[in-house]
Amino acid sequence: MTNIFAACKTLDELKREYKRLAKLNHPDVGGDTATMQQINAEFDRLFPIYKLRSNDSGEAPVTHETAESVRSEFYTANGWAGCNYDPARSLKDIAANVRRYVKANYPGYKFSVRTKYASMCQELLVTMKEAPVEIFKTFDQLTAADREQIIRRAEHNFVWKLTSWNRDEERAEILRIWEAHGEWYKIPADDIRAVAADVDDYVKSFNREDCDGMIDYFDVNFYYFGCLEDNGRGVKYVPRESARRPQIAGETAQPDKPASAALRVAFCPEHDGVEAYFSGKPSAAVREALKADGWRWHSAKKCWYNRNTEQHLQALRAATEIDALPA
User: Fold this and answer.
1) pLDDT band at 322 (very low <50, low <70, confident <90, very high)
2) With helix as H, strand as E and coil as C, how does 202-235 read?
3) CA 134 – CA 187 distance, rounded (Å)
């Protein structure tokens, strides 16, 4: 199944089409598990991009939804599942949920997730550290709004030297500023901004805020200031292409192994559980490793399930790496 959402032009159209396809293909209504997994994977990939485009356009109210929150709300309405603020949930538990979310949804990225405590407040610090895509736009990728933002920032900091200019002079001046003053004056790539916005929205879904700056009253569950610090200057570009181990001289070349089944992980807070959906039947070694850790097969939902603990997630990760090991 390719180009599932090719006809969708807006975020609303993307959500409507996802719900239509889910009603036709979800296993609970007799659909095919593998097909639903493909739909979910493509929806998860496209949602932050469409959301960023919608929020930037100003044509609709700014949304803080995530693909997971849309899916959870829709599944709950149909009696399929349910999914964030819980006064009984500790900041440590929230941090654990965030770690699982970024690992499951953005495996090519690396995030630091830490907690910080003071006498009367607590803070969750989530920082994007590495990304599999280029961090900043090139000049040719800049929009008119991007160029205006760069110029305003440069003028504010007295590094913009021109008083009037044409397009070529503008280009030369922006490139000069980038060379002389670094990444503070660059614009993060759309993929980077989309992922950061999605992670921020997920973190904020656990928060409660009751503040009034007019009377100097601040009451929040925890403080959070976003995962893209300093305009992305601390994020490293690290391609995540699977590299082959170099063949040692005299070593017999090993035939390529068949590709392992793709995996999607879903968390079920209402049952304190986690579900693992494979796109195909995992190898016998993977199945045995899962069973040894207490994972069980759900014949109706066509997934493996277990309690949502770090131990079981580590075991799942280790099991799914078995097929990637040299034969």
Assistant:
1) low
2) HHHCCCCECCEHHHCECCECCECCCCCHHHHCCC
3) 11
Using the CB atoms, write b or e for 33-54: b if 16+ within 10 Å: bbbbbbbbebbbebbbbbbbeb
Long-range contacts of residues 10-16, Cβ cutoff 8 Å, at least 24 apart: 10/50, 10/54, 10/60, 11/47, 11/50, 11/51, 11/53, 11/54, 11/60, 11/63, 12/60, 14/43, 14/46, 14/47, 14/50, 15/70
Determine contact, residues 311/321, Cβ cutoff 8 Å.
Answer: no
Query: Length of the chain in residues, anyone?
Result: 327
User: Across all residues in the chain, what is the average pLDDT?
Assistant: 82
Residues 86-118: tens digit of each pLDDT:
778 899 999 999 999 999 889 899 999 999 998
Q: How many whole angstroms separate alpha carbon 282 and alpha carbon 290?
A: 10
Q: Which residues contact 30 (CB under 8 A, 6 or more apart)?
A: none
Strand order in 263-268's β-sheet?
Answer: 263-268, 273-278, 303-307, 296-298
Would the pLDDT of 76 be above 70? no
- 308-323 burial by CB neighbour count: b if 16+ within 10 A, else e? beeebbebbeebbebb
Neighbours of 240 (CB within 10 A): 13
Question: pTM higher than 0.70, yes or no?
Answer: no
Question: Is the separation of the CB atoms in 314 and 101 below 8 Å?
Answer: no
**CA–CA distance, 256 with 241 (Å, rounded to integer):** 16
Per residue in 250-263, pLDDT (tens digit) is 445 444 444 456 77
Ranges of beta strands (E only) in the chain are 110-117, 122-131, 236-237, 263-268, 273-278, 296-298, 303-307
- Residue 270: band (very low, low, confident or very high) from pLDDT cuts 50, 70, 90: low
With pLDDT > 90 as the criterion, what percentage of the chain qualifies?
Answer: 39
Work out the pLDDT band at 249, boundaries 50, 70, 90: very low
* Distance of alpha carbon 61 from alpha carbon 247, whole angstroms: 55
Take residue 25 and report the two structure tokens written for it.
Answer: 């293909």
Q: Which residue has the tokens 């390529």?
A: 256
